[in-house]
Design a protein that fits this description.
The complex is a heterodimer. Chain A is an all-beta fold. Chain A is about 0% helix and about 55% strand. In chain A, strands 2, 4, 5, 9, 10 and 11 form a six-stranded mixed β-sheet that branches. A five-stranded antiparallel β-sheet of chain A has the order 1-3-8-7-6, with no helix packed on it. In chain A, a hairpin with a 2-residue loop joins β6 and β7. The relative contact order of chain A is 0.34. The model of chain A has no long low-confidence stretch (mean pLDDT about 90). Chain B is mostly beta strands. In chain B, strands 2, 4, 5, 6, 9, 10 and 11 form a seven-stranded mixed β-sheet that branches. In chain B, strands 1-3-8-7 form a four-stranded antiparallel β-sheet, with no helix packed on it. The chains are: A mainly beta, B mainly beta.
């Protein structure tokens, strides 16, 4: 089955700097890769996603890149702000015959220092 | 649109007791998921429904956990009997169909003492 590895587990940056979180996946049939932000005690919230037919997607300060050959994808946050502090999870969803099962990475705790 | 609703939000029980959680998905969403999130880890899928049928329950500890979605809308997840290691947040999510964006509910924080 699918396995998702996420690094780093913790990341501390200064306000205004960029943050990068990387994930690798094992199942080459995976075709959908969402990123979730989870603030303490709250539900995971989708912040950006990418499908396997594109290599990059951007939404304001957030971007995601996908390298299908290497089976890895990354989240890039530019001009970080203190409110970006949270735990970020990457995930991968397999092909239709896998029922759309979402496999999460272990999470990255991002801390943005003012 | 209204989001995914879950109740209760918090539950404290003793080991060997039973507990049930309820989830109401977003209207029109055919797919419903139950996840277990242990502190410091990512959510782990327990069971996935498509309408009222089970798509995947490979990681559901069936000796103590059960779930149903009888009318293809609301769902309940039950644990009987509970163990200490069941302490976690139980998240319900729904999507329009499989492979689409999943929307999470607020979760139920279970503490087993």
């Amino acid at each position: 089955g699918e396995n998702v590895e996420q690094h780093p587990s913790t990341l501390s940056v200064q306000e205004g700097d960029s943050a990068v979180i990387k994930c690798t996946y094992s199942d080459s049939a995976s075709n959908y890769f969402p990123w979730y932000k989870q603030e303490l005690g709250k539900r995971p919230q989708l912040i950006i996603d990418i499908r396997s037919n594109v290599g990059e997607k951007k939404d304001q300060r957030i971007a995601v890149t996908l390298n299908k050959t290497a089976k890895h994808f990354s989240l890039h946050i530019t001009e970080t702000q203190p409110e970006d502090s949270a735990v970020y999870f990457c995930a991968a969803v397999g092909g239709y015959n896998q029922g759309g099962k979402l496999i999460f990475g272990q999470g990255t705790e991002l801390s943005v220092k003012p | 649109e209204a989001g995914v609703a879950q109740s209760p939000r918090y539950k404290i029980i003793e080991k060997r007791q039973s507990v049930a959680f309820w989830c109401n998905p977003i209207s029109g969403h055919a797919t419903l998921y139950w996840y277990q999130q242990i502190l410091g880890q990512g959510p782990k899928l327990l069971i996935q429904f498509q309408n009222n049928g089970v798509v995947d329950d490979s990681q559901l500890p069936k000796d103590r956990f059960s779930a149903e979605r009888l009318k293809g809308v609301d769902s309940t997840l039950k644990i009987q009997p509970a163990k200490l290691e069941d302490s976690a947040v139980y998240l319900c999510a729904s999507s329009y169909s499989t492979g689409n964006e999943q929307y999470f509910g607020p979760g139920t924080r279970l503490t087993v003492t």
